Input
Amino acid sequence: MSFVEIQKNGKTAVLTINRPEALNALNSQVLSDLKAALDELKKEADLRCLIITGAGPKSFVAGADIGEMSTMNPKKGEAFGIAGNKVMSQVASFPCPVIAAVNGYALGGGFELALACDLRLASEKARFAFPETGLGITPGFGGTQRLARLVGPALASELIFTGRTVKADEALAKGMVSQVCAPEELLDKAQELADTIAGRAPIAIRQAKKAIRGGLDLTLEKGLDYESECFGECFDSEDQKNAMKAFVEKQPFNDFQNR
Ligand code: CAA
Output
């Protein structure tokens, strides 16, 4: 039995973390199931957008598993952090866009999973926090790095040092999520966004993701060089030729073939 379920909807898929009895907390088994599911999905060349969500009405993911961590020594703690970070990096570098549909608690490792995604949609019930410093640890699945990059070091420091809970409306105002909706609409809204992305040129979307992600680690000058490289590679595709030909001929075009 896997703690991760996958539902394919044409060119998009929904990955659900399914451990609702523990509010979808990430233990080693969940991390390993998540890794295996992402490895499988990555092989699907025509997958154009992935949604990640949590099972049940209460929680996206309520963090890394505290019971499992409670007996770890420094060596095991570091290894657990490395394993978690590998999975988060797998999400961040997934070839097509990944949307987090945050349906409730996104705490600690759950907040970090949402941060590893490209886009975050939140239900009105979403709650984001880093409780770690109240448990005697730091965020360990990328939170210190990805939150600081997303909202800047001051707000990231405040949230990590205090453990303060951020509700959906504040998350929207501070740019942590791009949309907030009623809980019952969340998956439909995420699917709508995934379908919009899936309807556009997939090679261009992948190159754009590479440019955005890759550029974050570079100086502006090097980032611009990298953008030119990613931009140039798009001109190798049939989709670019057909879409531009249609524009020049004043014809509508949305039949992208991922070639
Ligand atoms: N680890 C393990 N089990 C967890 C869990 C977690 N992170 N979060 C919730 N659960 C379990 C609870 O132990 C409980 O199990 P039992 O029914 O067997 O007792 C079940 O999920 C339901 O939880 P509650 O009864 O506590 O539900 P609640 O509605 O009263 O409270 C909550 C919800 C506020 C989210 C509370 O469960 C909570 O505070 N959870 C811990 C959140 C947390 O601290 N997360 C950060 C973990 S550290 C981390 O993530 C490190 C990292 O960066 C890698």
